[in-house]
C-alpha cells in the first residue's frame, strides 16, 4: 500500500468530513487537519485545528467522537477495515463476535443422537415387518396344506391324496381283472 500525497489528502478530507458531520458546522477545512510524524509504515498522528480561532486545536474527545461516528465511511474510503486501519485511543466499531445461544458441541451431540435413535427405530420397525412377513408366509403354507388335505369335487369333500404312498382307486380295479386284456 503506497502512502503518498494523494492518500494524505484523502485522509485529511475524510477527517474534515467526519468533523463537519459531527459538529454540524461547515468551518472545518482540509487545511485544518495536520499530519505529523508520518512514517513509511503509514503511522502518524494528526491534529484538527479550529479555523474560527486560528491556532486552537479541537479537543481530542470531539475528534474521537467524530471518527467513531464516521468510522465506517473512513474505512470504506481506504478499502480497509477496523482490523487494518487502527486509531489509537479510539475503540474499534467492530461488534463483538456473535456467540450462539447453544454451544456447538451440544448441537453436534443432538444431531448424532438423533441419527442413532433414527437408526434404532429403523432396525426395530424392519425387524417387526420381517417377523410379520415370515408369520404370514408360514400361515399361508399351513393353509395350502389344509386345502390339499380337504378337497371338494362337485361339492363333495374328498380324501386327501397321499402323494408319497399313492392311492388306488377301487372303482376301476377289480379283483379278477388285474391286467387288461389285449
TrEMBL record:
PROSITE patterns: COLLECTRIN_LIKE. Its main location: membrane. The keyword Transmembrane applies. Keywords: Cell membrane, Glycoprotein, Membrane, Phosphoprotein, Signal, Transmembrane, Transmembrane helix. One of its GO terms (cellular component) is extracellular exosome. Residues 1-182 form the Collectrin-like domain. It is a single-pass type I membrane protein. Pfam families: Collectrin. The keyword Glycoprotein applies. The chain crosses the membrane at residues 104-128. GO terms for biological process: positive regulation of amino acid transport. It is found in: Cell membrane. This is TMM27 protein. The gene is Tmem27.
Amino acid at each position: 500500500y503506497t502512502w503518498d500525497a494523494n492518500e494524505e489528502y484523502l485522509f485529511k478530507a475524510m477527517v474534515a468530513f467526519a468533523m463537519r458531520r459531527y459538529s454540524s458546522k461547515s468551518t472545518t477545512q482540509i487545511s485544518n487537519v495536520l499530519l505529523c510524524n508520518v512514517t513509511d509504515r503509514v503511522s502518524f498522528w494528526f491534529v484538527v485545528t479550529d479555523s474560527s480561532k486560528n491556532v486552537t486545536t479541537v479537543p481530542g474527545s470531539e475528534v474521537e467522537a467524530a471518527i467513531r461516528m464516521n468510522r465506517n465511511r473512513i474505512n470504506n474510503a481506504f478499502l480497509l477495515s477496523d482490523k487494518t486501519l487502527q486509531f489509537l485511543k479510539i475503540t474499534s466499531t467492530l461488534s463483538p463476535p456473535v456467540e450462539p445461544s447453544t454451544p456447538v458441541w451440544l448441537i453436534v451431540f443432538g444431531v448424532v443422537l438423533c441419527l442413532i435413535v433414527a437408526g434404532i427405530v429403523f432396525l426395530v420397525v424392519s425387524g417387526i415387518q420381517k417377523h410379520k412377513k415370515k408369520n404370514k408366509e408360514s400361515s399361508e403354507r399351513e393353509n395350502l396344506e389344509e386345502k390339499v388335505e380337504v378337497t371338494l369335487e362337485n361339492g363333495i369333500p374328498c380324501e386327501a391324496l397321499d402323494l408319497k404312498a399313492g392311492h388306488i382307486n377301487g372303482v376301476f380295479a377289480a379283483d379278477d381283472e388285474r391286467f387288461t386284456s389285449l
